[in-house]
Amino acid sequence: AENEADKNSHPGDLQATPYVRKFPRSGWVQYGVAVYNATADKKTGLPQVTVQAEVYRDGKPAYRFPPRTLEFSPRVNPKRFDYVGRLRLNDFPAGDYLLHVIVTDGLAKKKFARAEQWMDFSVR
pTM score, two decimals? Predict the structure, then answer.
């Protein structure tokens, strides 16, 4: 439900915080994940990790982005590293959304190969 304060706000007034995730249609959503204990390749010492983002609206997929294979330098510690992604909102109609981020470890045993996280946000 929309309250009076929401009706009187302007896109320039929107400020996203960890608790209020409202973004203008011309903005970006930046999201990050910390990956722990990725399996390192025995030959290269590097992990094989992909990250995929999906956006849902009204319980249905609205946007699906192809999995992105991360590239690592030999200095990467597979026990813990960060990934930051950005999502441009230019084509998103105003409304409420769910961002689904899926991280897949291509070398891990099936039971431990996938982790996922959900986050809600609004476009105004």
Answer: 0.79
